Amino acid sequence: MISKEAFEANGIEWARENPVMTGPFKLKQYDRGVKLVYERNENYWQEGKPYLDGVEYHFISDTMTQNAAMQATGDQRVDVLNTTSPEQVLALQGLDVYVLSMDSGSLNLIPNSLDPDSPFNDIRVRQAISYAIDRDAIMAARGFGVMSPANQLLPESVMGRLPDSYNCTYDLEKAKQLMAEAGYADGFSTTIYCMPGIVDVDIAVAIQSMLEKINVKVAVETPDQGGYSALRFGEWDGMLFQLLRLFPGVLNTMALNFDVQDDLTTSWLKSSYRPLEELYNAYQDAARQEAVSDEKLQVAHRLLLENMCCVPVYNISDYYIIRNNVHDTGFTVWSANTVWMPADAWMSQG
Fold first, then answer.
1. 90, 148: one domain
2. Distance between CA atoms of residues 216 and 239, nearest Å
3. 280 and 172 share a domain?
4. How far is 339 from 320, CA to CA, in rounded Å?
């Protein structure tokens, strides 16, 4: 919720990086891809809050640098590390920290299926990609006993799950058959772009090896935050390896990733095909219910999987590795990722 007056006076481009609102902290500094700095709002509407003088977000893509920051002191010190890597939890558990966790969604390959000149425009190719991926083998190697294979867009902990895996089982012969039927028996070359800070690149490399068995030659790229955002909010050629974030409202998980507006033209993942009219009707039908309907959510979920708008690979959780002197953050209370209660957070000596 932002100031209507400030928005109208300064315009949308200004408002995007100069928020004027009623939150407990005010934006002080924003270096895109580097850090985000907030200072205490002395006029906050809850008397006596916030307790902290400020909050800083530091965007660190390198895992080793993240771990070092959790062990550092002084200006290099980080008090909370948000990660999706159970490997990092295991590496840092010996420190003076505690860990919170929550399901955060599934990692999916998002092909540029909307492009009529792309091999992924053919649903049989998208299905073949899915059948060629041995999810159980990947999780045995990189799941650390915590992560699970994704045979649907939604994890088992939420409503909207379906009784069928929808092309998400491992069947190499079927994958080869579909590639031949689509006219790609000899394969093609493509690229997987890994979402920074989220995707386990070793898993992308494993998929690269698996797809070679159906003659799909894959280059794995690891763009920085800015580069990946340019692809995600623009267009791409190949496949994004993308977290489809799990929101408290399950319908939002589907609608915000495969957005369909009233004019049936605006989309978030722009290069990804989706059955616009059918999805729009399914979203509207589900949203009109007084109570959340598992059956209505399944309709939208089924449309996305039947059309292979995404290729689910594995499910992840958000982990918050928090120093023991940081209290009442509210992480995992409402949602995964950056949703928390900064006005209530406080720090003891330590």
1. no
2. 12
3. yes
4. 12
In a domain, 323, yes or no: no
Q: How far apart are CA 211 and CA 310, in angstroms?
A: 16
Helix or strand (DSSP H, E) at 193: strand 188-194
Rounded distance, CA 260 to CA 275, Å? 9
Is 55 part of any domain? yes
pTM of the entire structure?
0.80
Nearest-angstrom CA–CA distance, 250 and 302: 14
Asked whether residue 322 is domain-assigned, the answer is no
Tens-digit pLDDT profile for residues 173-213: 999 999 999 999 999 999 999 999 889 999 999 999 999 99
CA atoms within a 13 Å half-sphere pointing along the CA-CB vector of 122: 14
Tokens of 56: 């800083």
Cα separations in angstroms, 198 against 30, 169, 246, 331, 348: 22, 23, 14, 18, 30
